[in-house]
Design brief:
Number of strands: 17
CATH class of the largest domain: Alpha Beta
Helix content: 40-55%
Distance between the termini: 27 Å
CATH topology of the largest domain: Rossmann fold
Number of helices: 25
C-alpha cells in the first residue's frame, strides 16, 4: 500500500516522477493504489486502507450493503472522532471535506504510516520531497535519540519540520493550520477510570471469550489460516484458541538461529504437530543483514530492534511458501498485560525508601571505563539503569556520553519529547504499574516498536498480518482490570521476582497448551544480534561502509567510530561473561549501520537495495 495526499500543491511534480508513475489518480487531490476503498456522503469523501474486523457489530443500524468506508462516514457524522474508538482493525483513512481534511490511524498504529508537514501528508517520508520539490534537513537531535533507543518516537521524525501520526491520533488540517488529537488519553486508562470488580475465574473466562471472538472475526471465510509460531504462550494461545473456532487448513512459520542453544524451533514444531498445521522453518545465519537497505528504505525513519530480522525473514518465508492470506501474530500481548513487574516494584521500593540516591551514585560511577567491559560491573550498570529509568524506553544502544562524542554537532537527548506527558507524582505501586503500562508498554513499545515493525514488514511482502490480542474489546477489557489480575502478587513478591506476569492469560491457557510450553522456564524470546557480525569478512565490509560513509566523514567523530568498531572486532569472537554485553554491543553496531544506510538513501538520495550496493 502506498499513497500520496496533497494540500495546496500541484500534482504534476508527483505524476512526472518515476517513483509514483504506477499509481492511479482516484481524486483530484489524492494519488493512491487499488487497495484504497472510497465512499462519499454528507459532502465528505473518505479514502480507506486496511481491515476492520468488527463490521458486523457496527452495522446493526444501517443497511447490510453499507461498505466499511461508508459505515465510518455515517458513524462519524453522528459521533465525530469518538466513533473511531469503536473500530477494531489495522487501518488508515482520510476524510476530506471542503474546508477540512482529517487523517486517522488505528489505535496501535498497525495501519499504513503517515508522514506530514504543515501542508502535505504521504505514506512515506521520501515522497514528501516529490510533492514539495525540496530536500528536508536531517534532525540530529532525533537521530541521536535513535542511536540510544533504536527508534524515533512519534510525532517526531528524522527530518526537521516533518512529523508522523502516532497510533490512535487524528491529524486535522483546518483554517490553514494543522493539529494532532489523541483519542486515547491516560485519564481513559486504568486507575483514573472505572475499574471492573471481577473474580479471577470470571476474568479468565471473559478473556478467553474475547480472544476467541477476535480470532473468529479475523479468520472468517479463510480456507487456510497462517500463524507465526514460537515456543511461548502468545503464539501458543493463538494456535490453541484457533483450533476451538476453526478446523480448516492451517500453516505455521517459525524462525530460528544457527547454533543457538535457546532455539525455540523444537517447541514450535511440537505445537505444530499437536494442533495439526503444515509447518515451515527458517534458520538465520547472519547473511540476512545484506538486505538491511531494503528494510530501511521501506521503514522511512531509522529503526532497529532485536527482532527486526526475525520479522523480515518470517514475512519473506510466508510470502515464498504460501502467498497472500490471513496471518495471525501474537505481538503485543506481553505489553497489554504489563511488563517489567520486578523492575517496577524495585523502582517503587527504592524511591519510597530513599535508596534512589544510591542508584544515582552507581549511575554516575558507571561512566568509568571499568563498566565498559564484559564483567560484573557492566551487569550491575545494566540492571541499575533498567530499574532507575523504568519509565523511559529501554536503551540498548549508545549511552548519552558516547552519543555526545559521536556527533560533531551538539546534541541533547536528556529530555526527549515522548516523556513530556508522564505524571509528575505517583502515589502507589499500582499507579506506577499503570503509568508504565500506558505510557511505556502501550504508547511506546506496542505502538512505536512491535506493531510498527511487524506490520511494516508484512506490508513489504504484501502479507496480511493481524494481531488478535490487540482487538478493541480486549484492550477495553484489560485496561479496566485491577493490577493483580494482570500481574499477580504484592509489592514484595514482585520485587523478589515471584510475581506472575500475564496471570490471566496463563490461567486461560495452562490447561490447553502442552506441558513442554507451560512448565518451561521463560527464555526471553530475544534474537542474538552478534550472529550478523560473526563472519569476519562481513564485519570488515560493514566497518568500511560505516567509516567511509558521508555521515561519518562529515558529521561524526571518525576516530571515535573507528574505536567502537575496533573494540567490537577484538571482542566479537570471545566466549564472554554475559549474553547482554554482546547483545548491547551488537545493537550499537547495527544502529550505526542502519543510520548510515538511512543517510545514504534519504539525505544523499542514493539508490541502494543491498549492502553490496554501497
Amino acid at each position: 500500500m502506498k499513497f500520496i495526499a496533497t494540500r495546496n500543491t500541484d500534482l504534476n511534480t508527483v505524476l512526472d516522477s518515476k517513483k509514483v508513475s504506477e499509481f492511479d489518480i482516484v481524486r483530484s487531490n489524492l494519488v493512491t493504489d487499488s487497495s484504497c476503498q472510497i465512499a462519499e456522503e454528507y459532502g465528505k469523501t473518505i479514502f480507506f486502507w486496511g481491515k476492520i474486523y468488527n463490521y458486523n457489530k457496527l452495522i446493526d443500524n444501517y443497511p447490510k450493503s453499507t461498505s466499511i468506508p461508508m459505515l465510518i462516514l455515517k458513524r462519524y457524522e453522528v459521533n465525530l472522532l469518538e466513533s473511531f474508538k469503536e473500530l477494531d482493525g489495522e487501518f488508515t483513512f482520510v476524510i476530506s471535506e471542503e474546508k477540512k481534511t482529517l487523517v486517522y490511524r488505528d489505535r496501535h498504529g498497525a495501519g499504513p504510516q503517515v508522514y506530514y508537514t504543515k501542508d502535505n501528508f504521504t505514506s512515506h517520508q521520501k515522497l514528501l520531497s516529490y510533492i514539495n520539490n525540496e530536500n528536508f534537513e536531517p534532525d540530529f537531535q532525533t537521530l541521536a535519540l535513535f542511536l540510544k533507543i533504536g527508534y524515533i518516537p512519534s510525532p517526531e521524525t528524522a527530518l526537521k519540520n516533518v512529523w508522523k501520526i502516532p497510533g490512535g491520533q487524528a491529524l486535522i488540517y483546518e483554517n490553514n493550520t494543522h493539529r494532532l488529537q489523541d483519542l486515547y488519553g491516560y485519564k481513559d486508562f486504568g486507575l483514573e477510570s472505572e475499574t471492573i470488580k471481577i473474580s479471577e475465574q470470571e476474568a479468565t473466562l471473559e478473556f478467553e471469550r474475547l480472544h476467541k471472538e477476535a480470532l473468529t472475526s479475523r479468520v472468517k471465510d479463510s480456507s487456510n489460516v497462517q500463524l507465526l509460531l514460537s515456543g511461548g504462550y502468545d503464539s501458543g494461545g493463538n494456535i490453541a484458541g484457533l483450533r476451538d473456532v476453526y478446523q480448516g487448513k492451517a500453516s505455521s512459520y517459525s524462525i530460528g538461529f544457527d547454533n543457538n542453544p535457546w532455539s525455540e524451533l523444537p517447541l514450535a514444531k511440537l505445537m505444530s504437530d499437536v494442533y495439526d498445521t503444515k509447518h515451515f522453518e527458517y534458520n538465520i545465519d547472519g547473511s540476512e543483514i545484506e538486505s538491511l537497505p531494503e528494510i530501511v528504505n521501506h521503514f522511512g525513519d531509522p529503526f532497529n530492534e532485536s527482532g527486526m530480522m526475525v520479522n523480515y525473514t518470517a514475512m519473506k518465508l510466508v510470502s515464498k511458501e504460501h502467498g497472500n492470506g490471513i496471518i495471525l501474530g501474537g505481538d503485543g500481548n506481553d505489553q497489554h498485560f504489563g511488563t517489567a513487574g520486578r523492575e517496577l516494584a524495585l523502582h517503587y521500593k527504592y524511591k519510597k525508601n530513599g535508596l534512589q540516591i544510591v542508584q544515582k551514585m552507581v549511575d554516575a560511577f558507571s561512566e568509568m571505563r571499568l563498566f565498559e567491559k564484559d564483567n560484573k560491573f557492566f551487569k550491575i550498570r545494566f540492571h541499575n539503569e533498567k530499574v532507575l529509568n523504568i519509565l523511559k524506553s529501554d536503551a540498548f544502544g549508545f549511552r548519552e556520553s558516547q552519543i555526545t562524542k559521536l556527533f560533531n554537532t551538539n546534541v541533547d537527548i536528556q529530555n526527549p519529547r515522548y516523556l513530556n506527558d508522564l505524571p509528575s507524582k505517583i502515589s502507589s505501586f499500582d499507579e506506577l504499574y499503570n503509568v508504565h503500562n500506558y505510557f511505556g508498554d502501550i504508547k511506546q513499545v506496542i505502538n512505536e516498536i512491535i506493531l510498527f515493525k511487524a506490520s511494516k514488514l508484512a506490508d513489504k511482502f504484501d502479507n496480511h498480518l493481524t494481531f488478535p490480542y490487540m482487538s478493541t474489546d480486549i484492550y477495553n477489557f484489560l485496561k479496566k482490570l485491577p493490577r493483580d489480575v494482570k500481574l499477580k502478587g504484592g509489592l514484595d513478591a514482585c520485587a523478589s521476582g515471584a510475581g506472575k506476569s500475564k496471570f490471566l492469560h496463563k490461567n486461560y491457557l495452562y490447561p490447553k497448551l502442552p506441558k513442554e510450553i507451560t512448565e518451561r522456564k521463560k527464555q526471553g524470546g530475544f534474537a542474538p544480534l552478534p550472529i550478523f557480525f560473526k563472519d569476519t569478512k562481513r564485519f570488515n565490509k560493514i566497518s568500511e561502509i560505516i567509516i567511509n560513509s558521508t555521515l561519518t566523514q562529515k558529521h561524526l567523530n571518525r576516530a571515535f567510530v573507528e574505536q567502537i568498531l575496533n573494540e567490537y572486532r577484538t571482542q566479537k569472537d570471545n566466549v564472554g561473561y554475559w549474553f547482554w554485553f554482546k547483545q548491547v554491543r551488537a545493537f550499537q553496531i547495527f544502529s550505526l549501520l542502519t543510520l548510515v544506510v538511512w543517510w545514504e538513501t534519504t539525505i544523499e538520495n542514493r539508490e541502494i537495495n543491498t549492502l553490496s550496493d554501497i
